[in-house]
Amino acid sequence: MKESINPYNGEKLFEFKELNDSQLVEKIKVAHECHLNWKETSYAERSKMMVKAAEELKSNKRKYAEIITKEMGKPISQAIAEVEKCAWACEYYAENAEEQLKDEVIETDAETSYVKYQPLGVVLAVMPWNYPFWQVFRFAAPNLMAGNVGILKHASNVMKSAEMIQEVFENVGFPMGCFQNLVLSSDKIKSVLENDLVKAVTLTGSKPAGASVASIAGDNIKKSVLELGGSNALIVFDDANLKETIETCAKARFQNVGQSCIAGKRLLVHKSIAKEFTELYIERVKEFIVGDPMDEETYIGVMAREDLAEDLEKQVSGSVEMGAKVVLGGNRKGTYFEPTILTDVTLDMPIFKEETFGPAIGITTFDTDQEAVELSNSSVFGLGVSIFTSNNERVKDLVPKLNEGAVFVNELVKSDPRLPFGGVGISGYGRELSSHGIKEFLNRKTVYVK
Hints:
Helix 3 (about 60-70) packs across helix 4.
């Protein structure tokens, strides 16, 4: 039995009965049979339904946002923004999928030669709790438009969100079986991937989860895409616009209570401005309103589970034992963790070398551009980095040197349906979103006619 527990007040919200083996096999069969018909529909038909899904999300965004907030503690204003972003993804692919997947003509010695993009079939999505709607829709919108069908194994603490996502698609006319939520434990993922009717898998989550799923997929010669952890650096140079940079760096770390793979997690600040930056940063973070996630004004609520808050507490205390100084916050009470800033952070401290998944950040200083690059690249993660500078020549020089899936200049790292999203190193492989993401689970069929 799966349960949803409100992390703010401990209230038990929902219970969900897990599928037994025969029910699971039947749902996969239904998905496969749906795909056989779905892949024959036109882009116009799919687009019409996807636009309706966007309208459904926008019309009922408060209802869906409240489920998100109750299940994992995201402040309600940010939950509403998440639902709106899902609608944007639906609209984007409804408008662009056909053009992105049109036959790609390639000149050869043939009379005609081209690449045809065709769907693989049933794709499994293993998704996390931190963006319970967005993580799913950024998979579902492109794949349904491409002619695939989806089955979802969501995180156990957001099963109501998963159920509501299936309802969104079914309520607007997508065929039964086009997108299904599976109430499963993680130990059942292996049997799902070993089912011959399941053709591929995408996972967003931790390195251990990604390694396990990729191994199973590899054993069965099935395509996988992994979006794993991140420890994004926020690199602040001495010529940055300080006021705008402070604002961006505060949001980059503390939105969604810091529970994001692409959050800014390591602040690298030029020594010449470190004192002023730190003072201003502390004052800005103090302005964030802390409270009940259901209150519209709340910016910092609670973490999704108490064990996650305990993990962060250990990372902070371990860093302090090694010489870091807490200049703001540092305390935990249940699932609530104070917005926390540490200074004098070195490369060997947990707050620097590990992924921190919560409202805490350490500040490390640097002297030169090369030192900033070396500090940023010292992480085993490679999801994204933000650099703050007014020097365009510096940007051109640094971008090729940073070992990341994305470089954002004077902005926090964020996902955008128009841009490919994904990492390198232990941050995963493959891409989501844009014209790149929609092609991940397609057969790129070469056609040569002489």
